[in-house]
Write a structure and sequence with these properties.
elongated, 5-stranded antiparallel sheet
Length: 136
């Protein structure tokens, strides 16, 4: 699938399902785009990009770094439905605090399923809606 066509399809999906992302779209010269949405807590953002005909979704941590991300390859049109379903799952899980941002005792940020966070010692968890500054 061609980059511009792919980006238009993902944009259409976002506009129809997550319009708050569409307000921050920044198109690149190659037809890809990136966009973001700040958490209600104001601590971090979800970002989405369409580089290399794949969806990348991640979290920008409080320091502005975007190292925390996952790639969703979508090379042919037949894969599109599964790709946007996976993207939607990431967004919904982050917003429902099922997938949370945390900071370990060394200051490094990462994301984890919230039920697994309980097994981490000396870490802070950050919520989409409220900052649950929890130290285990």
């Amino acid at each position: 699938m061609e980059q511009r066509e792919f980006s238009k399809l993902i944009l259409k999906f976002l506009e129809g399902n997550y319009p708050q992302f569409a307000q921050t779209i920044k198109f690149q010269d190659d037809g890809s785009f990136d966009c973001d949405l700040k958490s209600e807590s104001g601590i971090f953002s979800i970002w989405i990009a369409t580089y290399n005909t794949e969806i990348t979704i991640g979290i920008e941590d409080p320091n502005g770094k975007t190292d925390i991300h996952s790639h969703i390859p979508c090379y042919v049109l037949d894969d599109l439905e599964a790709c946007v379903a996976e993207l939607s799952s990431f967004i919904e899980n982050i917003k429902a605090d099922n997938l949370v941002l945390y900071q370990d005792e060394d200051g490094k940020y990462d994301w984890i399923e919230s039920f697994k966070f309980e097994n981490l010692d000396n870490c802070k968890k950050f919520s989409w809606k409220i900052n649950h500054d929890v130290t285990s």
